[in-house]
Amino acid sequence: FRRHQVKIHDLCYKMLRNYDDAKDLAQETFLKAYRKINKFAGRSKFSTWLYRIAVNNCLNFIKKQRPTEELFEEITSSGKDDPVQKYKSKKFREMIKRTVAKLPEVQRAVFTLRTLEDLSYQEVSEILRKPVSTIKVNHHLAVKNLRNYLRQKI
């Protein structure tokens, strides 16, 4: 639990952009893992299995309780208390967050896991239960979409 706690919470936060929701879903991830530990077959790393549970929890939460517009507004209004000297980097980070939030669900999940969590394509493939080729295509599309949007804004 302790070994994976921070990473799972960070993953949930990166997907949801809300500390309280991330905390709740990280906790729910560990509860589900505890209840379903007998279903862990050992075909992948334990951390991969745990990430899969966390990603599913986050995607289900987004679908059911967090409309995209509400998530977008929450992201754009966060971070107002940053010091003035961090203004430019803060604005850029917010622009990235807004753009990532606009990506289609699968692209957002792939980008978060591959780029922000620094997982391999194989690990992302196992977590999302999609072929590696699909993961690579979605990662490429996510980066392309982010690049196009940022070029328009900068």
UniProtKB/TrEMBL annotation:
BP-aspect Gene Ontology terms: DNA-templated transcription initiation
Keywords, alphabetical: Sigma factor, Transcription, Transcription regulation
Record CDD domains: Sigma70_r4
Record-annotated RNA polymerase sigma factor 70 region 4 type domain positions: 94-146
Signal peptide: none
Entries under InterPro entries matching the protein: RNA_pol_sigma-70-like (IPR039425), RNA_pol_sigma-70_dom (IPR014284), RNA_pol_sigma70_r2 (IPR007627), RNA_pol_sigma70_r4_t2 (IPR013249), RNA_pol_sigma_r2 (IPR013325), RNA_pol_sigma_r3/r4-like (IPR013324), WH-like_DNA-bd_sf (IPR036388)
Molecular function in Gene Ontology: DNA binding; sigma factor activity
Every RNA polymerase sigma-70 region domain range: 1-66
NCBIfam families (UniProt xref): sigma70-ECF
Family, per entry: Belongs to the sigma-70 factor family. ECF subfamily.
Entry protein name: HTH luxR-type domain-containing protein
